[in-house]
Amino acid sequence: MALLPDCGSAGNRGPLASGRVAAPMALQVATRTPTDSAGVEKAHSTHGERQSTVGRGAHCQRAAGEIGHPGLAANGKEVPAQAAAWSPAWRSTWSTFLSNHAKGIIACDFFLAVTATFRSLYVFVLIHHASRQLLHINVTAHPTAAWTLQQLREVIGEEDGYRYLVHDRDSIFAKTLDQSLERLGLEIVKSPPRSPMANAICERVIGTIRRECLDWMIPISEAHLRSILNSWVRHYNRGRPHSRLGPGVPDAPDLLAAIRKPKSRHRLEEGVSVLVKSVLGGLHYEYSMVPNVA
What we know:
27% of the residues lie in helices and 17% in strands. By secondary structure, the protein is an alpha/beta fold.
């Protein structure tokens, strides 16, 4: 959210026109100034020399409309620099940003897992917003900024099309880490303090990992936890339906594209069978249609 620009001297600001109040709220309480037939403000002065500063907010509001049309200022002068803060771009909400740039947004976070010997392990998760695909997952007992940067480097490439990385303000995301990622072409977007919902997609997949995997299996060691998660990630990306995708799967097997969609939801067409695959020893099952082998 853009803050109210300084469109007047400090002494002429209204009680709601401080730098911490949004511009529309301040405009609602701006004092109106009499105008002539041409719409030009009339200055009032008790001594005939001072110019009134009342109505500066209306001036900035008009200038904001002229931002999109350079050179078309109503008074023939340059648009004030302060009016840039009144650009309509500030009205975009966080959810609008995530929706408009979903194909270029990736998000990451950590969560804690405990082994059978009560050892604490940290799990790093990286997910793509548009496809809901889990791009990377790894486990460590001692997370550092250097280790985290290496995990991201294994995923980020020049041809992936990722533009933004969303993460929280944990100290592990050090300034040097963000600078290294910016050199790789990513723009870092930090979620607001104490606002996990700002990174809701990543938080949701962490909850899904707990509910569908780790709540049912107790890892023995770091290697065991990594093996469990790798198996579940393959299931999540290639076999678990996502309602947000249609329903569909983030990384559908190529075999599904070769099979024609059945006309009936209750009958299989000729030459097609249902294949059942067990995941994590029967914790989950994947069902898919495959052509019969002659």
